[in-house]
Every structure is written in C-alpha cells, then in structure tokens.
Amino acid sequence: MTADDLVTLRRDLHRKPEPAWREFYTTARIVDELESRLGDDLAELHVGPEAIAGDHRLAVPEETEFTHWYEQARDAGVDDATLERLDGGYTGAVAVLERGEGPTVGLRVDIDGLPQTESDDPSHRPVAEGFRSDHEGAMHACGHDAHATIGIGVLERIAESDFAGTFKVFFQPAEEVVGGGKAMAESDHLQDVDSLLAVHIGLDHPTGEIVAGIDGFLAVSHLEAEFTGASSHAGGHPEQGRNAVQAMATAVQNLYGIPRHNDGATRVNAGVVEGGSAANVIPAEARIVAEVRGETTDLMEYMKGRTRQVLRSAAAMHDCEVEIEIGAEAPSATSDEELVSIVADVAGETPGVERVLERDELGGSEDATYLMQAVQENGGSACYVGVGTDHPGGHHTATFDVDEASIQHGIDTLAGTIERLGHDQ
Amino acid sequence: MTADDLVTLRRDLHRKPEPAWREFYTTARIVDELESRLGDDLAELHVGPEAIAGDHRLAVPEETEFTHWYEQARDAGVDDATLERLDGGYTGAVAVLERGEGPTVGLRVDIDGLPQTESDDPSHRPVAEGFRSDHEGAMHACGHDAHATIGIGVLERIAESDFAGTFKVFFQPAEEVVGGGKAMAESDHLQDVDSLLAVHIGLDHPTGEIVAGIDGFLAVSHLEAEFTGASSHAGGHPEQGRNAVQAMATAVQNLYGIPRHNDGATRVNAGVVEGGSAANVIPAEARIVAEVRGETTDLMEYMKGRTRQVLRSAAAMHDCEVEIEIGAEAPSATSDEELVSIVADVAGETPGVERVLERDELGGSEDATYLMQAVQENGGSACYVGVGTDHPGGHHTATFDVDEASIQHGIDTLAGTIERLGHDQ
Amino acid sequence: MTADDLVTLRRDLHRKPEPAWREFYTTARIVDELESRLGDDLAELHVGPEAIAGDHRLAVPEETEFTHWYEQARDAGVDDATLERLDGGYTGAVAVLERGEGPTVGLRVDIDGLPQTESDDPSHRPVAEGFRSDHEGAMHACGHDAHATIGIGVLERIAESDFAGTFKVFFQPAEEVVGGGKAMAESDHLQDVDSLLAVHIGLDHPTGEIVAGIDGFLAVSHLEAEFTGASSHAGGHPEQGRNAVQAMATAVQNLYGIPRHNDGATRVNAGVVEGGSAANVIPAEARIVAEVRGETTDLMEYMKGRTRQVLRSAAAMHDCEVEIEIGAEAPSATSDEELVSIVADVAGETPGVERVLERDELGGSEDATYLMQAVQENGGSACYVGVGTDHPGGHHTATFDVDEASIQHGIDTLAGTIERLGHDQ
Amino acid sequence: MTADDLVTLRRDLHRKPEPAWREFYTTARIVDELESRLGDDLAELHVGPEAIAGDHRLAVPEETEFTHWYEQARDAGVDDATLERLDGGYTGAVAVLERGEGPTVGLRVDIDGLPQTESDDPSHRPVAEGFRSDHEGAMHACGHDAHATIGIGVLERIAESDFAGTFKVFFQPAEEVVGGGKAMAESDHLQDVDSLLAVHIGLDHPTGEIVAGIDGFLAVSHLEAEFTGASSHAGGHPEQGRNAVQAMATAVQNLYGIPRHNDGATRVNAGVVEGGSAANVIPAEARIVAEVRGETTDLMEYMKGRTRQVLRSAAAMHDCEVEIEIGAEAPSATSDEELVSIVADVAGETPGVERVLERDELGGSEDATYLMQAVQENGGSACYVGVGTDHPGGHHTATFDVDEASIQHGIDTLAGTIERLGHDQ
C-alpha cells in the first residue's frame, strides 16, 4: 500500500466510527480491502461468528442497540450478504496467510470506536481536511482506525515477503468495553500461534518513537451491583423502609477504603451510581457500576473479592438484597523478552524511527492481554508494541488525532519483526 | 347538587388527573361548574394568575413540560380563552360569595393529581365502572378529585343557606409537590379570612368517621445538591480526579446521622441520588435530591442547617464544589381549638357520621399549612378536617379509590360548620 | 427530723459521695440513722444482699474497684460488721414499717454519687459552707444525697402518723449506671407493693414547684461491641490486616443513621470508642460502648435490633469478628393517673409549694421504671414525683447543688400522699 | 574482636533493650567498649547532645518517661558522669577515626529496642542460653543489638586496616519511632561524609545472603488529630452535642478512601483511635493517630495533604474543631549504583556469604533515609546494605532472634567496602 492508500483507508474508517460489537461497516470495509488487495493469497478469511468464540463475548449491548448501526452500515453501502454474517453483534475478522513450513505468528489489532463526540473545531485536522466522524456522538478517539490500517498494511507486506510460516491478523472488535479480547482468545484461531504481536499507537509517545515491549497492564473487572430494599413514606414511616441508597453510600465509602496491597498497584472506582425515586420516598433501589483493577490478575481478584464482601455487607447492614453481576474482565500480561529484543532491533533500523524504548508501562487496561495470556499458556510468546504518534488531544478526548506518518513506522516495525520470526526459527 | 351530580363530577375529574401546575382541564372544569351552578350568585371568580401570587409558586416544572398537558386540555374541549388565562402554569381558582355583614370564612381544597399509573385490575372500581384515568401515568391517587367536588358542593350549599358574611373557596393547585400553598397564602384573597377550613379525605379513617382537627403536620423542605469535581481515568490517574460520588456518599452517610432533637420529631431522606458517567472514569458529577422535616418549623430549619453543613463539608473533603438549591417548603401548623370543637359538634349531628375524633396526627406534610399559618398570623383561626372514606389501596398507590358516600359527609360537616360561623359571630 | 437535722444529714452524705455499687459509707450511714431514729418502730431493715436480688445487679464493676471505697468507708468509721454485709458490691437497704391493716405503699429513693469532680469555686455553696466532696473525683451531682435524706424523713413522718398499712422505703444503689433498679425490682420486697412512689429533685423546676406525675422516661439499653480483626504492618502488608478500626468507623457512621421511627423518639450514641495499638500497625481490636433509647420499650428494642445488625455487618465488611454484650437496661414507664391526682392534691396544700404541675416529661432514662413496671404488672399503681429545687448548675455538672428548703417540700408531699393512701383504702 | 567477643557484646545489649531516646545503658556500653578497644586511636567520640542536633529530635517522650530508664541504667552500673551527658533523652554517639588523606566514609547503625515483651518459651534461644531481656516489656526484636555490635566491629577492623581517609560510625538512637534519623542527619558530623553505608540484618533473608543495595523505602509521616466538640446528654439533648466521635468516624472512613496514585504505592492507617467518655454522653473529644506513606517523598506529601483535608472537613461536618500535629517523618531514598556494586563485589568474596542480591525492596520505612538523603544532597553517595540472618520469628515479634554468625558477615562486607573506598579514591 502506498502512503496515500494508507491515509485514504484510515480516513475512511475514521469517518465511520462504530462502538463495540457494532463494527458492521468497519468489519465489512476490512474484508473488502483484504479481498481486493490479497485475493487468493489469503488462505483463510474468517468473519464475524467464525472469527470469534461467540459465547465468550463480553459486554454485548441489548439487541435493540444494534438496529441503528446495522441500518447505517447498509446505507453506507455494505452488501446484505456480509451484513447478515455479522448480525446480532458478531463482528471482527481473522485473516490467514499460509507460507509453508515455519512458525505461526499472530498480529492483533482492534477496530472499534468510542461513544465520544468529535471536536468540530476548525483547527482539528479531521475537520480541516474533511474526515471528521459522520456518526455524531461516536469517534475514533483512540486510534483504532490506524490500528486496522496497520493490520492490513502488515498483511500485504508479509504476503510480498519471503516469510516462511503461517501469519494471522486478528481484527478484534469491542476492545473499548473490554469485550472482544476474550472471545478472540477463546477462538480456535489462536490455539496454534507461536508468537503474538499486538500494537497500540500514541500513548503519549511522539512520532518517531517505538516502545518495543509494553508491560504494566492492569487486570480489570467490571461489576454491577443492584441493591433492593423497600420504599416507605419518608415522613410518615421512615422505619418501614429498607434504604437502598444508604446501603449504596455505605458500600461506596468502603469500596474506596479496601486496603492497598503490598504486591502492587490496585484500583477501585464506583463510576456510576444511582438510586431512589422521589425526595419523600425512602429509596428502594440503588445501583453501583464499579470497576476494580490490579497490577496482576491476582491483585484484581483480591480487589474483586473484597468488593463483593463490601457490597454484601452494606446490603445486609440496611436490610437490603444485593445482586452482583461481574461484567467484562481482562487479565494482566507481560511482554516476553525474546520478542521485545527482536522488536527493538528491528525498530532501531526502521526509517523514521528516532528513538527506541526497550520497555514502558501502560498503567491502564487492555484486553489484548487475553490473547497474550492464551499464547503464553500454550508455550508461545507475546509482545505488545507501542508506536509513537504526535497526538494533539489525549486518548479518549474530542481532539485526539494521529500523525499518519506513524502508520508506516508501525507497519515497518511489525512486518520486519514478523519476517525475522519467519526466518530465524 | 344531588348525590348523582357529585359522583358524576368526581368521576369526570378522576378521568383527567393532571400533575402540579398543569391542572388546565381541572381548573377549567371547576370554573365551568361554578359558573353554571352559581352564576350571578358568585361575587367574584378569580382564575389562574388572579387566584395566586404567581411569584410565590414553588416547584414549577420546565416550560417544556406544559405543552403536552395544555394541548390535551384543549383536545378535551377546554376553550382557548380559558386556557390562555392559565398559560405558563398559572392554575387554580378562588370563588367568592358575598352574603352581607359577617365573618370571612375560607375553605381550601387541593386539585392536582399524581405521577402514578392507575391500576388496570378489573376489580379496581374505576376500571369496573369505567372512570379509570385517561392520562396514562397520571392518577388521582390521593383523593383531590373528591376534594374539588367537595369545594363546589359546599359553595352551592352556602349559596343556598342563610350564612351571613363572606365565603371563599380556594381551589389550590400543586399540593403534591408542596408547590401551590405558598402562592395561595401570599395572594390577596387570604388576607381578610377570619376562619379557614381545609379538608382531606381518607388518611386511613373509614367511611363514617370525621376527625375534627388534624395536627402533627411536619414542616418540610426539599433540597437539591449538585456536586462538581473533576473526572480522570480511574486506572491511569485516580489521583487527578475530584470524586463527586465519594463526596455524595460521604454526605448521604452523614445526612442520616444528623442528631435527633429533643424538641420533637425530625426526618431526613436522600430520596434520589445519581452520579458518574462510566465505570472507568472518576466521577465528576453527582446529585442528591433530599428532604428534611421537623415537627415544628424550627426543627425543620435545624435539619436544613445541618444538611447544608454536611453537604458543604462532604464536598470540601473530596475537593468538590457543591451547589445547594432549596426547593419547595411548607411550615408546620396546628388546628385551633375553637374551630375544632365547632367541627366536632357539627360532625356529631351529620347523617352518616358514626364516629367523631376530636384530634389526630397527620405525621406527614401538607402545604395547606401555609394558608393556615397566614390566617393565624393575621389573628384568625384555622382547622384541618379529616373525612373518613374506605380506601382499598393506600394513598399514593395504584389501587387508591374513595367511597363516594363520604363526599356528602364532607360537604355536610364543612357547610354546617361554616353556616354556624356565619351565625354565631 | 428538724430542718437542721435534714441539712446535717444531707451535707454529711454530700461530703461522702460513692459511685454505683460502692455506696458502703452511704448505706451504713442510712442504716445508722434509721436505727437511731426509728429503733423498734422498724418492722424490718434489710441491708445489702438481703435488700436486693443480687443476681440481677447490672453494670457491677470489677472486684478490684471495690477495695479503695471499702477501705475508705472503714476509715470514715463504718464498723466491720456492717461493712462485711455489703462486701462485694451488695449495697442499698429496704426499711419496713408495719402499721396494721391497710395497703402496702412503697417509696423508692436512690443513693449513689457520680464520677464527677466537684467545683472548688468559692462561690459554690458546698465550698463556701464546708461540705464539698471529700472524695476527689466523685460528687453528688444529681441530688441523691437529698433523695436519701427525704427517704429517712418520710419514714420518720409515717412512723409518727396514723397511716394504716405497710410502708417500705427502697434505698436503691447504682441508679446512675442503670444498675440497681432491676435488682431491687426483682427482690421479694416489691412483690406486695400496691402503690409505689419515686422521687427526683430538681430537673430544671425551681424551688416551690412540684410535678405530680413525671412521664416520658426513655427506655434505655447499653451495648458494648468488641471488634476483633488481625494486625499487620501498615507499610509492609496492609492487605494482610483485618482492620477493626475500619469496622468500628463504618459501624459508628451507620449507627447514627438508623432510621428515625414514626412511633416516637429514639436515640443512639456511640459514647466511647477506642481501637488500635500503634500508628504503623493495622488495628486488630476496636471497641464501641453505645446506648440506645426509645420513647417506649418497643422503640428501644427496635433501636437495639438495628444496632446489632449494623455492628455485625460492619464487622463482616472488614472481615472482623464482633462480640456484642448487652449491658444495663431500663424500660419506659408511665405515672398512673389515680396517684398523680392524689399527689397533685396533697402538693397543692403543702406549705412552700407555690405551683403544681400535673404532668411533665423527663426526656431521659431512670431505672426506677423497673420498680414502677413491676408494681404495675402486679396490678398496683406507680407515680414518679418531681420536687423542684433551685439548682445553680445543671444535673451532672460540677456546680450542681440543691436548695435545701425543697427537701421539706418533698417530705411533706410524699408523706401526705402516703398518709392519704393509708386512710382512703 | 573475636567471634566470642561479638557474641558477648551482642548478648549483653540484648539483655538491656531500651526504647527510643532512653538508650542510656546502651549508649554508655557502646562508649565503654569503644574506649577500651580503640582508646587513643579514636580521633573523636561524640556522645549524646554532641552527637545529634538535639532540636531535630522527633517523637521524644514526655520527661516523666525518662526517669525509670535512667535509674535502671544507673542500677546497671553506668557511671553518673556518662549518664548526665545523656540526661533528658539525648542518646546516641558518633565515633571518628582519622587516617590521613582520603575520603570521609560513614556507617550508620541504629541502637534502640522495642516496646515488645520477649517470648519466654524455653525453645527461644535467648531463654535457653540465658540472655532474654531483663527489661520486661522491652525487647531487641529488630536486631539493633546486632547492628550496634557490627558498628563497633567495623570500627575496630578499620582501625587495624590501611584505610586512608576519615571514618565515622553513627550510633543512631530512636529509629523505631522514626525519631533519631533527622537529628543525626542535621548534626555537623554528617556534613562532610562522601559515602554513607547503612545496614540492616534479617529482613527475611537467610544467613549467608547479602543484599548489596536496598531500595523501596516508603517515605512516612505520622499525624495526630484531636477533635474537639461539645458534650451533651445523649438522651436529653443529643442536638446540643457536637459529636467528636462522629467526626472521627467520618474521617477514618474517608482516610482509607484517599485515591490511590499513579506514581506509585501509597499507604494510610488510622492506627490508634479513641474518643468519648460515657455511653450516655455525646462525645466531645476524639483522637486519631495516623500515618501515611509514599513510595516517594512526593507521594507521602500527597497523602499528607489529602489527610489534612479529610480531617478538617470531617471536623467541620460535625461542628468540631480539629488540631493536627505532624509527628515523626522520614523521606524515601535510593541506594547509589556505584556503592551498590562495590558492596556486591566485596560481599561476593566474603567467607560465609553464599548469595549476593544486587537489589531488593524494603517496602517499609526507615529513618536512615534522612542521613542518606543529606549525604546525597551534598553530592555524596549512599547505600543501604542488607545482611541475611536466619530469624525464627518475624521482625517486631516476640520470637525474633538473629543467627549470630551473620554479624561477622556484616562486619566483613562493610569493612571490606570501606577499605576499598579508602584506597580507590
């Protein structure tokens, strides 16, 4: 792909951001691009339910949420045959090249957008150059448009190289809700992967910088607690109520007070709360949407256990019931040294790359860790690569954008690494 | 009015419940009924902005809330001239009889419905007999349809009697949100009232029982607190957030812990809470809708003062701002002994009344207290009368209904009392 | 007894205040006074273990607490024979007059002092006139010195009167810790009492005022909760601790938040808390000494039930155990109308009494209610009489004192009432 | 010193553990030992007020706490002249060797015991071999007896070596209360130190293991908060109280909820709390003794700032005052690479040392960091060395003991390092 091709593709995807499990247009566009560029070179192309283990999808929205996005993709020209394959929120794709004897190497890129309204400031480049989001309220504010583009670029490069072995690209949906990683990790396609690469652009690193191996993924778990008590008239019979808001407040206070842990960083957040119906009614219902994180999966499990205990005791204290639902989760993971040094080596020779950092910490969460962990448990190795890009706004903000020059840096570094893996082993 | 007339009128009002400040149909129907029944006997008939002190309306909804109810009233046949008088949520009416030398006596009845869906159970009489609410989601679940009917019935009775003096009926809007009492109390119409009666049906008293003087109104104040902090990524930078949900939870815990008071009963309730935007974002916004009550107005003020202090300190603790808005309020009040004994006397002689209780406690709040207080401060006396009625469901529940026989008990007791006031003095 | 005798006796007792269950000198002094004044007129004089049901003593201090007070009483001249009868904290006395056929009337007075240091201000009359407490840190700051004096004065008066029946005076120990009432109520001496009077001086009523029947005793229960968790190094392994102070703080926050009750006043107080061992150790132990009260015994039980629930849930939340011990308790009680009106009548004729209040509310707790309740359950009647006295400082404060003139008012009113009971029935 | 000498000295110190700022016997014993072993070889020997900057002592106990330990030291044979130099809690010593041209090297050892009762189990070696603590309730449970012994052993070794330069040993008092480090760091003796070594025995490393450079000291600060409100009768006038225990509980709940920080580990602990006077009194006083820690000094300051904010807001919420006193503090620190590698090198050649770890994390706090920081700020370098020892019980527990063989490992490794510093530079 020429530099222009990369920009065109990335901008097309940027215009059509789709949130988790609703990547209908995006998946179709990727499939089209792969078929037109690689055609018969592709040994396999798995789409939607064939690409993922559907039962392991997490954070899938209500059925009613799909229709709008489904119709919109059809309006944007996606053909019905493709759309039907994705129906019900089975998005994503896995593309496979078979190039003879050699290791099986995987590359994971994520493809979903965010529920964020894009800036309409004339100085925001997507506005200035006409590729701002067509989907009001949705935005590629984390660079997954560039990730998908990199995935296709690397596939083409490997197809043209003398790489020996099998190469798979995992176009993963629903990363932003920690929803798609597990479904992809549980699919058959990952079982035989010897080396897995994942990639993220930006992360506060400037254009020209490559981080060979990113670590410090916080394992994460979402929880939702529904407290149920009984309402009563707040003036007439306060004692007859079983106050769900008191239970919720007691829980919030104590959730943030879960002891810090000597083994490493932990996090907890009661991110959304609500409860009650009217000023003069003792509240019978309240809800907390929370998340916990840990520097290791064990630390996350520690936080999850203590969170349940707090929620249950707070309910019991105020004579309420509580139902706790565990939502999306992702484990922690570490980049393997052997892959990190190959990436670092290759990056050092990549044109435009001026600085290579061996390691850096993410400090957030990512469900690529599901895939990394699965490969590592099978005896393979994994590495999460950071590709610097000048980004005017922070990740997940309205003015995020990428420096499109860095897309080539990502393709070169990853393809170079994969080629080396297909020679050396 | 014949028994049939009373039932017909009450059922028509029951079919068209309208919430606070949206009593367009109800006000118009009352005006029609008064004009057709009393015609020139009415010395004055003040409607909408002429009936109330508009600036003192409390808990007025947003402009946009009116349209639906306004149009609906028009569709139900209310003429444009009347509707225009009520435009912008100026509802209610004051009707005046002038009957020569004598005291000025007032009767206050409230007319609004509740945001409650009425039962559609076939055994619910309004269903069985075809007068269930036409307005899905709204309901006369507190008997104000009967109160309005009583108001008209008493007017007609006094018009036909040899009562000497001036008699005014206050058809008050927006009682359910503690919103209309103050506006009516501040109007000129109340200034010259020597004796004020107010009435409520039900209150767990059966048909055939009259409570001559109800006391124990808790003074009440609604408060709304908006906490504003700053969001941050809950995994990446929890320390950069200023957590409005922590502030809110701290406040809730401490609101319920405001010390009990030796001077009498107090209440506090955080009836509605909400905050935050997503599991992985430190919440920047949170809200509490609360109310406090006191057995006396002073006790309510004590609770209000402590509530402010808790809210402000909880905000400061978590580096948040808080904006506190005082909403609707009503004072406490007491029924005057001289009126209570006249009512008790008259009730004892009223056909169908089998039991008269001198006094009972309401244990809730009511903004009739604004009118009672105003009259008492002017040197007049006031009395809140309870008219028993068998009600299958509790007040404010979907199966509430009244025994229509009790409407006549109310009219007889009140009219009898008023007549006596117009003779004895 | 002459006015001088009364003052001398009261001042002697005032100089020797003894806290609950340590009234060694006080009991001995009462016994001496009774024996010297009444001698053979006394049908029975029960002392210490014979006066009370020892197994029902509440809030008894540790054995080691007795020695100091025991020795001090010996040093003050109490003979060994008497002291031995009181050994181990069995204090108090019951004196009985038998005067032929007639009702059995009881009078209960309490005799213990408080752990309060008496003012040494020269303007404090006990200082000025030389009868300030000899026992530094203890004080008759609630008038029980006057009560004991009244008890003896009434006995002498009845002995000299033509009262027909049996008259008993209950000199009750340990009222201040709600400790002696139950033990006296469970003794045999109360079983046959037809009418019981109890008396309190002061209570914010001035000299010359008598309250014929005091009500509004709050039922009270003391609770002690011991939280046990596990300590750990607060820097090294905070996660290994099970934090008893966090459990305690959660409990305190929620105790004060127990819902108010529509049936009447309730109270809760975490009066003493402590926990932890060092700044750098996660606390393994914490303790709350709390009390709950209710306008009725049921309301107190409601508070007690909710308190247990809060304590247990707070412990569970922080992985701690909690042991809850119920301490001293007293029920609520009401003065019977028939006795109240006799007292009011008599008081109205008593020299020096200028104002008689039929009823007033105590608003606190008193374990005389155990005796009142026991008599009432046996079909008898009971009445708690208030004797006004000008007191410069509030009850339980360092400058409390009584106007000694009121002692005679108490004797006259009570003796007059008892005489009337011994004639009329 | 022979192996026997080392054991004899260490056991003598073990028998006489003295808590912070009361190391009268210990200081005297060190002075004696130094004078008898080194005599005129010592260029300087600073004792008590001359060894430390007295104004910078932290966590100094009340005057009354000294007497017992002072007298006990006299009884143990310390001469009055020496004792007088230490009067008022000025303990510790600095010994100086001057050996010509060369760098100034320092060694810091701490000398205080702990308020911990030593095990009397016959299997506890100090019991079995007769050197259990003579001071009931105090114990060398952290190995400072061995540290002092190592300090003297190294001094003797350097005196006998061909080290060129100046060598100082800092016998630091009051480490356990984070009290002596600052006073020693602020003394003149540290100003010219080019290289500073500190040493700790044990830390879960077995005999034969040396950690060349320990890092991960958590900066620490102690805080004490006194809440003052107003008491009132909990039954009679709960509303008149200003409840210091409610303020304290609100603070505790929110202290543990201070947000975690992305820059590294933080800690908070409300280690001791107390409040209130009696079950029936609204508590007017409450106290929290807390500590905060941070992986860096900045993180500790962050926690301290938030702690103040929580304490103040909790007081304001309940109408109380709060006085906050900052107690002992210690910064964080890092071992310098250049020293670490010398220590590692030397340790590798030390007889008995089987394993050398380049680095390890302490995970706790230490006020040696004051000295390390001071030296590093002056341009020098510092290193904290861990000397493994088999210890049957954990640090700060009743069965802690050291394997005396490791004392020689410490002396050899430290003396070897110091000699090399006195040659190479």
TrEMBL record, chains A, B, C, D:
GO terms for cellular component: cytoplasm. Keywords: Manganese, Metal-binding. It holds the Pfam family Peptidase_M20. The Mn(2+) ion enhances activity. InterPro entries: Amidohydrolase, Bact_exopeptidase_dim_dom, Peptidase_M20, Peptidase_M20/M20A_hydrolases, Peptidase_M20_dimer. Residues 224-314 form the Peptidase M20 dimerisation domain. Mn(2+) binds at residues 142, 144, 176, 200, 396. Its cofactor is Mn(2+). GO terms for molecular function: dipeptidase activity; metal ion binding; para-aminobenzoyl-glutamate hydrolase activity. One of its GO terms (biological process) is folic acid catabolic process. Transmembrane segments: none annotated. SUPFAM superfamilies: Bacterial exopeptidase dimerisation domain, Zn-dependent exopeptidases. NCBIfam families: amidohydrolases (TIGR01891). This is Amidohydrolase.
